[in-house]
Automatic annotation (TrEMBL):
GO terms for biological process: carbohydrate metabolic process; glucosamine catabolic process; N-acetylglucosamine catabolic process; N-acetylneuraminate catabolic process. Residues 14-219 form the Glucosamine/galactosamine-6-phosphate isomerase domain. This is Glucosamine-6-phosphate deaminase. InterPro entries: Glc/Gal-6P_isomerase, Glucosamine6P_isomerase, Glucosamine6P_isomerase_CS, NagB/RpiA_transferase-like. It comes from Bhargavaea beijingensis. One of its GO terms (molecular function) is identical protein binding. GO terms for cellular component: cytoplasm. Pfam families: Glucosamine_iso. Keywords: Carbohydrate metabolism, Hydrolase.
Length: 235
């Protein structure tokens, strides 16, 4: 898999250092459009950026996804997450997150896709779900999918509900970039920590594309870096 480079790190701290250096190079190389992810995986990464001298004031960002019905004032929204962990501490030229409170969600998806395609993402960050989802592209999502409204699976609702007051408070639908939207980025960095992510990463190592594991769509992309603390990943 010549297109995929694995970078093994000791821990989250080393991952944050590796990513910080990579961002420094990308910015020096003229990066203009950055694709951003949410989730606990990204917290140490954004903390390191926020504490650094990196300058994002000429950068436009696009986030992967948002829960339907949650706005930036809700601490469980991804808009709140981004403001809290990064945007309030590092000014960007422009930030984009799908609007989970849009009146017309289909129109919002179409407009979001048009905006991100028009801008062209230079580098996209990704996490991965335990079931192999990327953004909120759940198992079975076609690799040709663009930004769309999606129904979250029981597995994702179970894992992500830990951040909500109770299981009934988590929205069951979300807006997400599609797999094709993600693959349109020139470069991709996926970060995964901990044994819970081993099964998902091993699907990638197997080298076979299957819609059952959306992460395997990355096999189609020419420039992917995986940063992980997992070793001995077996096919
Ligand atoms: N929609 C997000 C994904 O984009 C993210 O990759 C995943 C992993 O989250 P964590 O980093 O907390 O493990 O969580 C959510 O489902």
């Amino acid at each position: 898999m010549a297109n995929i480079r694995y970078v093994k790190v000791a821990d989250k701290k080393e991952a944050a250092e590796v990513v910080l250096e990579r961002m420094r190079e990308e910015l020096a190389g003229g990066l203009e459009v950055l694709g951003l992810a949410t989730g606990s995986t990204m917290e140490p990464i954004y903390a390191a950026w926020a504490d650094s001298d990196l300058d994002f004031s000429d950068v436009t960002s696009f986030n992967l996804d948002e829960y339907v019905g949650l706005g930036p004032d809700n601490p469980n929204s991804y808009a709140w997450f981004m403001n809290h962990h990064l945007f309030s501490r590092k000014p960007f030229k422009e930030t984009n997150i799908p609007d989970g409170k849009a009146h017309n969600l289909e129109e919002e998806c179409e407009e979001y896709e048009a905006r991100l395609r028009g801008a062209g993402i230079d580098l996209q960050f990704l996490g991965v779900g335990e079931n192999g989802h990327i953004a909120f592209n759940e198992p079975g999502t076609p690799f040709t999918s663009i930004t769309h409204l999606t129904q979250l699976t029981e597995s994702t609702l179970g894992v992500n509900s830990q951040y909500f007051e109770d299981r009934s408070a988590i929205p069951e639908t979300a807006l997400t970039m599609g797999i094709s939207s993600i693959l349109s980025a020139k470069k991709i960095i996926l970060i995964a920590f901990g044994e819970k992510k081993r099964h998902a990463l091993e699907q990638l190592v197997k080298g076979e594309e299957t819609a059952e594991y959306p992460i395997t769509a990355l096999l189609r992309h020419p420039d992917v870096t995986i940063i992980t603390d997992l070793d001995n990943l077996t096919a």
